[in-house]
Amino acid sequence: MNNKEPLIHITRRADIGWKKAWVIRGAAIITALIISAIAVTLATGLDPFSVYGKMFEGAFGSPRKMWILGKEIAFLLCVSLALTPAFKMKFWNLGGEGQILIGALVTSAIMIYVGESLPNGALIPLMFIAAAGAGAIWAGIPAFFKAKWNTNETLFTLMMNYVAIQLVAYYIIIWEVPKGSGKVGIINQDSLAGWMPDLAGQKYLFVILLVALMTIGIHVYLKYSKHGYELTVVGESRNTARYVGIKVDSVIIRTLLLSGGMCGIVGWMMVSSTDHTITTTLAGGRGFMGIMVSWLAQFNPVAMIFASLLLVFMQRGAAEISTAFQLNQSFGDIITGIILFFLIGSEFFINYRIHMRHKEKEGTENV
Amino acid sequence: MFDIATFLSRAVVQSIPLLLGCTGETISEKSGSLNLGIPGVMYVGGISGVIGAFLYEQSSGGNMNPVLAILIPMLACLIGSLLMGLLFSFLTITLRVNQNVTGLAMTTFGVGFGNFFGGSLIKLTGSDVPSIALSKTSHYFSKHLPFADDLGWVGKIFFSYGFLAYAAIAIAVITAFILKRTRTGLQIRAIGESPATADAAGINITKYKYLCVCIGCMIAGLGGLYYVMDYASGVWSNDAFGDRGWLAIALVIFTIWRPNIAIFASILFGGLYILYLFVPTGSNLAVKELYKMLPYIVTIIVLIITGMRNKRENQPPESLGLPYFREER
Question: Is the ipTM of this complex over 0.90?
């Protein structure tokens, strides 16, 4: 045991200005980009600048790529928005994947079974309502048990993902075209029943606009509505919430119905508007990525747009690199992982101050 | 005919990765760290072993030393998982960042890492083999006791596994003993329940937490190694390991944080995992997909029941998932 003052002394920051916080986050992103560039160079033997050139090309290279980028951002953003109310209530909804899938499954089922007998004007709203309802139920079940018996929601929602995946796998075998292919194929390719019409000749415009509206909606809901206030209180302290007369159980269930319903709508958008088919990997990890987007953005819907943009850009860019150099597509996940680690780590420097011994100066931000 | 000996022995084979993952996660959770990165760690453990074995097989040119053939992949696996453990520890213990977010990021990274190197290893090393099939290394890993084949069903159920399977059971028993009966275990549990109290009692919180997370990750990583080298006969295929990492985490709650119970619980899960192969469904393939739901549904039921019974000794460690900052007492 030595009695010397320790070399590094850490204290919690009272409050950091948003400018300073974003400087730290920006430094983290730049460091992460440098590290990723080194990783790319090691893997491909290319100089880092042309690698980033290639990534930009992959993300923004042509109008088509821009639209795909926009669509991907919209999907990731929408999932993040969906998870945010639950997350803010400190309810770990890891079931986004399952909620998206079940929404997509119900949408596909309606397209396949009643697609021919209803006009699109009635069919598409019906699909929308059914998908939102299915997603809401999928999230509502864990919420009910959490509210009543404090069941561990992290694992419950996670397991619901796999139940949904297996349900989808079951129906894929029933619906597969042609038999034995293991694929559903494009649904209603000839009749276009249940296909969301293109908006202004652009396939993805509708999705992007809808998600933009939802972003505003969630922002208002969290910030200005009574519901938003109640769920924030429940998240901070359940006992306080009870004391001030908030019905904690119903807030939990209500919030998760909203959260799951929005995830279900993402499934609806994917099947009705963009993909027109269903696979077990349709959700593509967005249920997990959305949690990180929401957390990195500190539950702020506007910041979530930028967080989604960053992650989608990295994934699209990395996909371009892996195609160009015949590398495995999972390269994007590695790059995303590196960026996430740095951004997660940078939160420390936002929340805490480092004091070095002898001098009362703030430590270097070696993010 | 339902062949019970075959079913049991295959259930055990399925259970070993789950058991290793579950034991590792239990150690970590007992010290207060909820590591949702375990699925990623198991991928990294598996692929690190594969990389080690691949490089050794390529360089040895056929004359492989049995000891090295086992030691090199194993060391590679342990180092890979240790690095993941250090990453998680550094972010959550030193930097006190949210454990769930860190864990999820680690899983994204780890699964991507595994699939990337699984898919690109041949291209990156510039070798001329068509696929990663480490049958020679796998042969050493899956070697079972010579007399097992002479013992009929007894041999099949008890003696037909590679050495890692027995190691997994030994690790689980030893972990259970250390956690429950030794001073070290008591200190670990104290940290998990109330780090502030443990700190006041003079226990080095940071050291123990780091150790628990890292050792936990290394044990879990072995689960990935067992899967590739023994179960999959040395053939790495992307995403084949699947969701076993998540099941391992669920198993921790199922076994109420007791690795000795995990030995049997993991065999039960292993059995549920492969039950669809043994249920006669005729030509109706779709129903098999529904049988694959079983392990998850059972987990959900168990979660609900443990939640409802609410017994004090069955609760998670009090400080699970929370960072510890001494100055915030």
Answer: no
